[in-house]
Design brief:
about 230 residues, 11 helices, DNA polymerase, domain 1, single chain, alpha/beta, 2 domains
Amino acid sequence: MEKEAGSVGESITVVADDRENVAPVIAALRAIPGVEVICRRLKLGDYQIGHWIFERKTLRDLIESIIEGRLFSQANRLAAAGQPAAIILEGRTADLSCTQMRRQAIQGALISLSLIFELPVLRSFDAAETARLLVYAGQQLRRQGTDKTPRHGRRPKRRRKLQLYVLQGLPGIGSEKAERLLDHFGSVQAVMVAPEAELRQVRGIGERLAHGIRWVLGPDEPPGSCVPAVR
C-alpha cells in the first residue's frame, strides 16, 4: 500500500503548519496510505515537503489578499526565503460568483506570481485534491532529487528588486517613482493600502497620479466606470 503514496516503497512525509490542524487537507492527507503528517509551526507556508514550501490559498483567499494588498508581500516573503516554494490555489470557478473581481485582475495576479516572483501556481478543486497534489509533488521531488537541492537565487538581496518590479506595474510609475514610493512607505504592502493623501506626499506623485493608483488598487467598479487619466 505504501507504493500508492511514495511509488518507491517509502512513505511521504508532509510537515503541516499547526495552524492548519483543523483544515480538511490534514484529514485527507492522513487518510492516504504511506503518508506521514507532522504538525508543527512553520515560519512560512502551510506545508513543507523536503526543502519545498507550499502556500495553500482558496480562490476567495486569493481575491481577499489582492484587494487588501497582501498578496505581493506574501509572495515577496516566499521568494526571498532561500527555499523553493509553490502556491496551491484551491477551489472552483463557482467560488468566485459572489466577488466583483475581474478575470483580468485575477489573471494579472497569477502572472505576477508565476513570472515575476517565479512561484509555481498549482491548481486543485478541493481539500482532497490538494492532499493528493502534495503527495504527487513529494513523489516527483523524490524521483528528481530536488527536495534536497534549494533553488538558486532565492536570497533576501532580491527582495528590493522584486518590490520595485511590482511597483513599476502601477500606472504612471517608472523606476524613479518606484524607488521613492518604496523608500517612503518601506514595503509594497504599505503602498498598496496607502490613501491618496499619503501617496501625494511622495515627490512626483501628484493628485491625478495618486488617484489613478488608488483606482487600480481598489475594488472592481461597475461596467461603464471612467478610467482616470494618469500622467
